[in-house]
Amino acid sequence: MYKRFGNLCYVLGALRGFWGHSNRDLRIKVNGGEWRTVDKVTALCVGNAKYFGGGMKITPTVDPFSGDLQVVIIQDFKWYSFLLKLHRLYGGTHLTVNGVSSIRVQSIEVVEVVPNGDVFVQSDGEHFGFLPTKFSVLPGAVDFFS
C-alpha cells in the first residue's frame, strides 16, 4: 500500500499499526524455563538477523551464526514515542531506551495473559498467524557460505 514511498513505507506501515492498537500483557517462557509476565507490550520482536523492513536495526546485537535469537521487547510505547525514537531504531541504539529490553534465547514461547486470539504474529513482514506461538533455533538447519 505504501511501496511508492520507498523505505518510508515501513515507517508509515508501523504508524498505521498504532491506529487502534492497545498494549497487551503477555506471558513468555524462555528456553523451556518458567513462565513470566511482561506488561504493556507494544511489540515483541524475535530475530536472527539485525535488520527488519527498510533498514530498521531492531535486533542490533544478534549474530546469525551464534545459534541464538535476539528478543527485543518494547513496552508501553505510543505513536509519538515511536516517532521521537525512530532514529534510535534505525541506528540500533534503541536498546538503552526506557521501555525497551533485550534477551538472547534459543527458544521462546509467547501467549496472551488474557487470550483474545487477535494478536498478530508476523514473519518477515507477512502474516504468520496469531498468538500463542513459539520460536526456536534449529542448529545447522541452514548452511551459510562466505
TrEMBL record:
Domain YegS/DAGK C-terminal: 4-144
Gene3D superfamilies: 2.60.200.40
InterPro entries: Lipid_Phosphate_FormReg, NAD/diacylglycerol_kinase_sf, YegS/DAGK_C
Protein name in UniProt: YegS/DAGK C-terminal domain-containing protein
Residue ranges crossing the lipid bilayer per the database entry: none
GO MF, one example: lipid kinase activity
Pfam families: YegS_C
Organism annotation: Aegilops tauschii subsp. strangulata (Goatgrass)
